[in-house]
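Reopening closed ticket. The problem is back. First fold of the pair:
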Amino acid sequence: KSFSRRRNTNHKYYEVRWKTVDASNELKYFKLINRAKNYNDYNAAAVYFHNPGQNCVFACKNGDIAIRTQGEWPAKWKGQGDFVMPGLDSSYLWQGMIPQDEVPFQYNPERGFVSSANQKPVDDVTYPYYLGRNYPEYRGITINRRLTSMNGITPQDMMALQTDNFDVGAAMAKPFIVANMKEGALDAIEKKYFDIFKNWNCRNDVGTQGATIFEQFWNSFDSTVYNDEYAQAPKLIMRPFFSTLLEEVLKDSSYKFLDDITTTQKETLADEVTTAFKKATVLLKQIDAAGKLDWEKHKATRINHLAKKLTSFSRFNLPIGGGTRNINATKEEHGPSWRMVISLTAQTEAYGVYPGGQSGNPGSKYYDNFIDEWVGGNYYTLWMMRADEATDKRVLAKMSFNK
């Protein structure tokens, strides 16, 4: 959980346990990892990182690679913690933690790479512990496909990969949308937007309009499919994930929720797709009239000042692509805030960029000087300082700690 709170509602107490408030020793992890020379050193350090859970990735110049989904994870039975459960019954409480030698990890896998974009790190068949649900798989799918097909990878290849805007979820959905659209039922304006969507390459690039059309369609499609069943549901009930609807329709074109239970006829996938697109067009016309059909204008990415209310110190309407299911997961006000590429050549090469600047002072010319480079997918060369460079002219200042 990302928060912990306790509140009184109708004289009943609700509580969430959050691992981060438990004692741990992450400083020892950083001390040891900063001195690590090999895989064994990395492994010995990783076990001290308990919370919040992180993907700890390792690479060494001898060719070893590894990744640990590192943290102190509750050893839960399937479904435990997914819903509100009775706290007075001890069987619902955490019974223990996953042993550190059994947390998900990979070491020199046969495929030749490790990766994580928060996709599920294990399979549900062989791994003995329950790790919850709602893992966003789509970025991981794209990363793994790309890395599998790449050879002779250079730092520039990895920079391009980190800024890739392909939406594999949309690519999975597009064929059944096109195949089931009743084009004869569309008016001229609806047909215009549908033609844009048909010609879209499923990339959320700057200047594309298909991404905006797909987003509005999918929101409408979700509502068209599920609103009738959810009409009498509690207001705070969870809705199905994007992946749920996509996977169910791909498996079964007669998915039972496609039928509108408020009508006498039995609606088909073609009925729901066409109805949803026509509803989406109402909003698309408004978006188009406002000059915001291009994806980056519709998404309107902004970088807020940390106080958020200080708009004069923020940057708005950044011309950047990306989105929830893209490797470049840049959304309206959230995204990949630190991009880095390391090449473990004889002399280590490093490149990086972040959407800000070297100064937190809004009056400084360095306050936001990296933002435009970050938006453009550009990187700075990072100085990997060697011991013999202690007197290099690039050293601007030194800090000493006395006992």
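Second fold of the pair, where the issue appears:
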Amino acid sequence: YLLDGGYKVIGIDDLSGGYKDFLPCNENFIFYERVLGKALIDDIFEKHSIDTVFHFAAYAAEGLSPFIRCFNYQNNVIASASIVNACINNNCKLIFTSSMAVYGKHPPPFTEDLDPAPVDPYGIAKRAVEMDIEQGAQQFDLKYNIIRPHNVLGKYQNIWDKYRNVIGIFIRKVLNHEPMIVYGDGEQTRAFSDIQYYMEPFAKLIEGHHNETFNIGADKYWSINEVANIVKDVGAQCGYDAQISHGEPRHEVKHAYCDHTKAITHLDFKDDTNLKSLIKDMFTW
């Protein structure tokens, strides 16, 4: 999207959740394969004149995070500190994708003015980075935005990770002729968001709305039971006999979805996610 808009783009990724085949072939795109938090990135900032940094890097396995504490904090906090430092030292704006996990057990829909109360190490890590960025703004005049998206989906998404992206996990299970596992009673509620509607509001943050926090995502929420049945129906349309089984409840927030009034008002954000159509597109791909 940024390349189409005439920007020059530098990508940094360790390819733990993506593939070189999906990188754009464009003279205005440069790619560096680095492991943030372990490999230095100062040379990239010294070599290129960078105006804005979009920080999307994380290992977003919320339910797994209590069992991978060191890995979680290394990937999601320590790695982020190197990016915050680079942005401060090179006078770059930092646009950080946090998570609605920072809200914890507040009653939904979550609004940006709520005091964060994360209930797991993933949410704690995201909130820690938010606080570090806010401190950087106070002491060093770092320009930033914090975005809190949730359950983002789309074609080309990695569906082979066992612990991330419930719909991707369900699709992979069906393709492998394995039952989808719904944890607990399946009445947990989440909203699922089509990635295509995020591009324009993200781009608007490059030039304005400095030091503001925005929720962004779909308004309609679904139970996990409903989502599993959609995947089951789509699988049946494609010739797969999908089954649903239930597992023990997990340590998770029961109901989690956001209010997007601020993004609608200030970024002209509009989400038209059609979950059934989106799941069918993903399954077909």
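Update: turned out to be a display glitch only; the data is intact. Helices lie at 42-47, 69-89, 121-140, 166-175, 199-204, 224-237, 261-267, 275-284. The two ends are 21 Å apart (CA to CA). Please close again.
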